[in-house]
Amino acid sequence: FPMAAAKTGSKAAFSLDSYHVSEELGFILPEPLEELPPYYQPWMDITLRIPELVHSHELRSHINKMPLLSSKFLQKHRELRLAHLALSMMTMGYVWQEGENDTVEVLPCSLAVPCWEVSQRLGLPPILTHADGVLANWRKKDPEGPFNMENLELLVRLPGGDSVQGFFLVTLLVELAGVPAVRSIPTVINGVKCGDSEAVARALEDISQSVQDMTDAIKLMQGSHSHIDYNLNCMWILQWKDNPCMPKGLIYEGVQTEPLEYSGGSAAQSSLLHCFDELLGIKHEAKNGDFLTRMRSYMPPAHKQLIQDISLQPSLRNFVQQQANEQLNQAFQVCVTKLLAFRSYHINVVSRFITVPAARARQLRNQSRDLEEAMISRAPSALEERGTGGSGIMTFLKSVRDQTKIPMIGSCNTKVA
């Protein structure tokens, strides 16, 4: 895909046209394909059976028998995205089929080589990412129906049933809720360039509403998977970077002889919040900033480029301070406050569905209860302290939230509902 050059000139209008951002769906892949060309049927036959094959402990044996197929017959972007989804899902299943107690050191050539090749063509890493599991892993049950929980399902399912499906679909709806905010970013940037305070204020109000809608969407987590299978769901998005279960990483057979390390799928790989941070001038302390910057390498290259180009635009915060316009100042304050509220609520969600269940798993493991033993032995202890991307999860999230407060201008105590 064509990359947009950084638009830093004072007269050049900033546009989303070159960044693979959909007018209706934002960073979500529009109309993902459900089938690959017939040549690749061996991949899809296994991919669509992943939950049952993991349950029967047969996924690895099926992948070991899989033929080595060339990726050269994949031509279109959506074909590549479905192939990456299928291959990376199989990769996660191969590694984590038996939980932490029986991981592997080598990914077989028949999976490793095409996964690597497709990843290189897309500019994505050879592991399941947010762009795969969320942005390219959906379909409408009724093509003419609404884009909501009742009318959505995953193309490729993970073990864990409806609770896991809910986890990914709610995340998809959060992305959808952020679309109006993304569409408003060029209005803010161009308004700053030409000194149009009113246009900037209106666009910031639209962004605030969109971020509020994102918070409302993430609240659907409460109902979608209140009984989420922590063990299975979280295991499948774990990384083999900084993971004590896989201290050597993973060798991609037929690609290179040295093991490779990659982070797992994470909300930090969503382009939405990165765009908002750059627009609002939110800077994160070195350790968090380094992690977030690394997560951009797990995004489609055009989306990563958009974030970079937003960062090169004239400072919105400086513009707000220079204008001394009450409506503009208020709009900026509310926008930051809404983003702060979203991050605070996200911390609650992570605590409820990851941190608390992890502590419970640790407690049961320590008590060695016989009835729980089989399940707890598979509980991902790496998540008790660290997130799926490899970050110290609660410390990281709280620090990122606290850094969000810094761009607030003056002593305005803006209150939002």
Automatic annotation (TrEMBL):
Gene Ontology CC entries for this record: cytoplasm
Claim: Transferase is one of the keywords in the record: no
Pfam families: IDO
GO molecular function: heme binding; indoleamine 2,3-dioxygenase activity; L-tryptophan 2,3-dioxygenase activity; metal ion binding
Domain of life from the UniProt record: Eukaryota
One GO term of the biological process aspect: immune system process
Binding site for heme b: H346
Keyword tags: Dioxygenase, Heme, Immunity, Iron, Metal-binding, Oxidoreductase, Tryptophan catabolism
PANTHER family (UniProt xref): INDOLEAMINE 2,3-DIOXYGENASE, INDOLEAMINE 2,3-DIOXYGENASE 2
Family: Belongs to the indoleamine 2,3-dioxygenase family.
Protein name: Indoleamine 2,3-dioxygenase 1
Lineage: Eukaryota, Metazoa, Chordata, Craniata, Vertebrata
